[in-house]
Amino acid sequence: MSPSPPAVIETSGLTKEYPGGVIALRGLTVTFAPGVTGLIGANGAGKSTLIKTLLGLLTPTSGTAQVLGHESATDSERIRQLVGYMPEHDCLPGDVSATEFVTHMGRMSGLPATAAKERAAEALRHVGLHEERYRQIGTYSTGMRQRVKLAQALVGDPRLLLLDEPTNGLDPAGRTAMLELIERIGTEFGISIVVASHLLSEIERVCDHLVAIEGGQLLRADTLSSFTGVSQTLVVEVEEGVAALLEELARRGLAPRAYQRTQVLVPLGGSGAGSGTGTGTGTADQAFDVVIGAVADLGLPLSRLEQRRHQVEELFRDESQEAGNVS
Amino acid sequence: MSASATESVIHDIGYRRYDGPRLRRAAIVRALAWHSFRSAFGFGRSAKAKVVPVLALVLLSLPAVINAVSVSQGNPRTIGYDTYIVGLRIVVMLIFVAVQAPELVSRDLRNRVLPLYFSRPLRPVDYPFAKYVAFTAACLVMIEVPVLVLYAGTIVSVHGGSAVWAETRALIPGLLVGLMWAVVMAATSLALASLTGRRAFATGAIAIFFFLTEILAVVVLHAETRGDPAALTHASTAVKVAGLFSPFTLFDGVRRWLGGTGGDQALVPDPGSFGVVYAIVLLALLAASLLGLAARYRKAALS
User: Fold this and answer.
1) Three-state DSSP class for B103?
2) What is the pLDDT of residue A271?
3) CATH number assigned to the domain covering A9-227
4) How many residue pairs from chains A and B have C-beta atoms closer than 8 A?
5) For a pLDDT cut of 90, what percent of chain A falls above it?
6) A107, B13: Cβ pair inside 8 Å?
7) Sign of dihedral through CA atoms A113, A116, A118, A120?
8) How confident is the model at residue A307 (pLDDT cuts 50, 70, 90)?
């Protein structure tokens, strides 16, 4: 291995057992490099427990964690000064303006009053809130609220951002905007970012690295390109005639399988799309044409045709299938 | 990076690092306490949020203002510094803490803002500590400002240094009684409010706690004293114990134990040596409230 820059997060044998006997982390040993890293895991995989342990809010049962070179068990105050955290759930008061709220949160990050005011205005500008910032947060759309959450994480000039499901509840346009914002913060602002998500397809657009955990254990940690070699899937939803469609698609050279009664999944790219650099647009277009042709010829009522989002479970299934090939 | 329509609102102004000074934990706690103190009076909130605090302060100060007018016309001061108008103070302070304690703690619970605090340099115990200091100060303002108005309104009309000195000496126990009220009422109401994020429930819980315990104590007292506790010189054990039921009778029991006067503003008869029990129960209530508050946020930091 070539010498790499110092890690932003390093855990070693990190284990967290809750008083009830639930084990959220099982000897997790993983390193997060600088840059944007996706933290992938299903609900309950241990993402939130990991984040809270890194912030020093939870004491690990055993093992250690270092964040930006500081030990989480002994130096968590320093860590919390250097880290910005955006929780998954809604965490904003409705009856104050974004400016007031982010300014207050800047104060709580340790900024003097004047600096907090200035940086709050800047943070809100960076996330794309302008005149609206004087309006009460209660009047905001979900997308704007997510931006305020990001701004409050950014206000204290963190060296590392921990973002928990930042695209939660956003429509496709909002998601794209949020992801572009994250990418921009990671590349232009020079702030390392950990994005926790259960949707691989979302964060693969912005991440340099991925860390996948399941059941509190490390599943895989690697660069993005080595992750996304797995095939992509087209989802076709028809209101009726699934059986006929399956037959027709198979005849036209695709490998469809039925899914949830009204859906047909079509793997894209086959063996040729393993490079991981592109998103397989060319093969996707071809497959789209084939599917549309088949649906039209059969006269089926098509209700959905799109490239399927990777669910974590799917990634894991692919993992276990390919486990033998990974070297 | 492509400039798509969705990011047209994001201006391309470079990111600036912050190299200035950073506050230490103690200074952050102070900032949070100041912020909370202001919000206890509705500052930084809508005009609606200021209604209850302002009305409460005006209502509580009214007797002191009337006193100032009365004393200026040559009448003696009739309101005691240590008792003030105790019935009015009970009702107004009960409403004040029932409405404003949830403003300080239930809002943050409801809006789930706490993780944002706990992911910052603050420790879990710092948050309730700052809230408690802030609310005690707010209660102090509510209680002591009328007392100080009473004092100021009186000394501008009395003549001679000895008269002013006498007023000042009477004032000091009054201020201390107010401090006792503020320290305990703030702790108990915040502990109750921190149990729920639903403001209405929190307000209800606080009002019911202070009101019911007061009713309970008063009913037993009146049954025993035929409605005039002050007239009773040798209180029965039942009467003394009844005074332990409510924070307000506890305040008054401790006040009288420490030498406070009787008269028609006294809630309980002189407890004599039993007064130490009043003090112990009051301290226990304070300790339980503060420990409960701290435990609530230790738990909240982990969830």
Assistant:
1) helix
2) 40
3) 3.40.50.300
4) 121
5) 50
6) no
7) negative
8) confident
Q: Are strands A160-164 and A192-197 parallel, antiparallel or unpaired?
A: parallel
- Lowest-pLDDT range of A166-175, A251-260, B30-39, B135-144: A251-260
CATH class of A233-309: alpha beta
| Contact status of A152 with chain B (Cβ, < 8 Å) | yes
Output the six-digit token pair for B291: 């420990």
Task: Map out the domains of chain B as residue ranges.
Answer: 23-286
pLDDT tens string B50-82: 999 999 999 999 999 999 999 999 899 999 999
Nearest Cα to A124, choosing from A148, A92, A157, A160? A148
Whether B47 has its CB under 8 Å from any CB of chain A: the answer is no
Confidence at residue A3, expressed as pLDDT on a 0 to 100 scale: 55
Check CB contact of B21 with chain A, cutoff 8 Å.
Answer: yes
User: Which pLDDT does position A324 carry in this prediction?
Assistant: 39
Residue owning tokens 């993983």: A30
CA distance B31 to chain A (A): 7
Inter-residue contact A155 to A109 (CB < 8 Å): yes
A262 pLDDT tier (thresholds 50, 70, 90): confident
Q: State how far residue A125 is from chain B, nearest Cα, in angstroms.
A: 7
Q: Which of B49, B298, B145 shows the shortest CA–CA distance to A57? A: B298
Are B110 and B12 spatial neighbours (Cβ–Cβ below 8 Å)? no
Mean pLDDT of A107-111: 96
User: What's the pLDDT score for residue A305?
Assistant: 82
| Angstroms from B131 CA to nearest CA on chain A | 14
- Cα four-point dihedral sign B154, B159, B163, B169: positive
Q: b or e along B219-247 (b: 16 or more beta carbons within 10 Å of the residue's beta carbon)? A: ebbeebbeeebbebeebeeebbebbbbbb
Q: Which pair of tokens denotes residue B175?
A: 């201020």
Q: In what helix (H) or strand (E) does residue A62 lie, and over which residues does it extend?
A: strand A62-67
Asked if A85 is an interface residue toward chain B (Cβ–Cβ < 8 A), one would say: yes
> CB distance from A135 to chain B under 8 Å?
no
Tokens in use for A50? Answer: 């990991």
**Predicted pLDDT of residue A261:** 78
Check if the beta carbon of residue B231 is closer than 8 Å to that of residue B266. Answer: no
Gap between the Cα atoms of B17 and A119, Å rounded: 10
Question: In this predicted structure, which of A154-168, B10-24, B201-215, B219-233 has the lowest mean pLDDT?
Answer: B219-233
- CA B256 and chain centroid, separation: 20
Residue in B9, B17, B23 closest to A110 by CB: B23
Q: Which residue has the higher pLDDT, B233 or A108?
A: A108
Contact of B116 with chain A, judged by CB distance below 8 Å, is answered with: yes
Separation CA A127–CA A182 (nearest Å): 9
Q: Identify whether the C-beta of residue A131 lies closer than 8 Å to the C-beta of residue A164.
A: no
Q: Are A189 and B15 an interchain contact pair (Cβ–Cβ within 8 Å)?
A: yes
Residue A279 — very low, low, confident or very high, per pLDDT cuts 50/70/90?
very low
Which tokens sit at A23? 């084990």
Contact B20 A115 (CB under 8 A): yes
pLDDT at A226: 63
Distances (CA, A) of B276 to A177, B120, B188: 66, 43, 21
Residue in this structure with the two tokens 């932003």, named with its chain if needed: A8
Report domain extents, chain A: 9-227, 233-309
